[in-house]
Amino acid sequence: MARKQAKRRKQKKAKMFAMPKIRIGRIVAPVVAVGIVVATYQLTMAMLDRTISSIEISGPFQRVTALQIEEAIGGQIDQGFVGADLDRIRAQIVTLPWIDQARVSRRWPSRISITVTEQVPAAIWGERALLNTRGDLFVSEARHIPAELPRLSGPDDSSAEVAMRYLEVRDQLIPLGLDLRRVHLDARGSWEMTLANGIEVRLGRRDVAERTGLFLDVVANIITGRAADIDYVDMRYGNGFTIGWKGGAKTPDADPQKDGQKMLASRGTE
User: Fold this and answer.
1) Integer Cα distance of 20 and 25 in angstroms
2) CA–CA distance from 24 to each of 13, 19, 27, 30, 214 (Å)?
């Protein structure tokens, strides 16, 4: 009796550790299918990745030539029609001086199309650097400096800030018939502007936004009427401004109750 019970226990243990039966076909079939897909993909890519037959480059080409662009991307073109990395090609193009943006695309069956946009200089930074319309420094040593561009200057890391203030003030002066010729920020944070008619505007380093607003709201209208008589405008006061007149010209009567205008004698500027 004991032998029968022991035999039954052994049979139960054998059943508990029995290995599951797996059909070989269930493993082989997916592997074969994946292999066929990969092989088909590689064969298709090999057939499509032909040598690039031509490069089409379009743009204004005032400062950059098509030959310069071809030379910059020569290594990538050798990779073939499909193998060529379009993002890398674009990155190499925009590193060229005077290139602002570039679009790169494939044109079936074996052509690469490139469209470039050149930088538009909006201001001179310092002595020979140029800023674009967004205030970005894109040329540090320009060979040709357009004489008609305004001049901006300041510490090395302040080009974007100075350009932003220039654009903001200029946009509000133009409707009044005035224009901005120069904006300077010194190392102490003091601002100065020069209008196209030669009038200097001193803003100082405190409350610059408020002083700029007062200049645009009140002083700009005075300048419009008597620009030939004015040498400078000093906005460095807590409650007003002064005007420096040429040749002893008189200050026009001002009624603070009427237009909020206050003219003060020179004292304690900053």
Assistant:
1) 15
2) 27, 15, 6, 11, 87
Parent domain of 137: 121-259
Retrieve residue 232's tokens. 């400078």
Dihedral (CA of 221, 223, 224, 226) sign: positive
Residue pair 76/107 in contact (Cβ under 8 Å)? The answer is: no
Residues 6+ apart with CB under 8 A from 190: 203, 204, 205
Question: Is residue 47 predicted with pLDDT exceeding 60?
Answer: no
Same domain for 135 and 84: no
Instruction: Classify residue 266: in a domain, yes or no.
Output: no
pLDDT digits (tens, 9 = 90+) for 87-135: 999 999 999 989 999 999 998 888 899 999 999 999 999 999 999 988 8
Structure tokens at 182: 């120069």
pTM equals 0.69
